[in-house]
Specification:
single chain; alpha+beta; three-stranded antiparallel sheet; 17% strand; globular
Length: 60
């Protein structure tokens, strides 16, 4: 069985400790790494970790 490597908006909000609306705003402004596939926004944990590290976040 393959391990899931992507997160949805709800999961990203919980992972980063922010509101879902903030995730949507970051996506709209292209400030967070994401992919859009058939109107679905997805994220990879690895890209979020790199982004958080580059943004100066500690442990988000």
């Amino acid at each position: 069985m393959m391990k899931r490597t992507t997160l949805c908006v709800r999961e990203v909000a919980a992972y980063l400790g922010i509101h879902r609306d903030m995730v949507y705003l970051l996506v709209k402004r292209n400030k967070i790494p994401h992919l859009v596939i058939l109107n679905t926004i997805i994220f990879t944990k690895e890209s979020l970790d790199v982004w958080a590290g580059d943004s100066g976040c500690n442990g988000a």
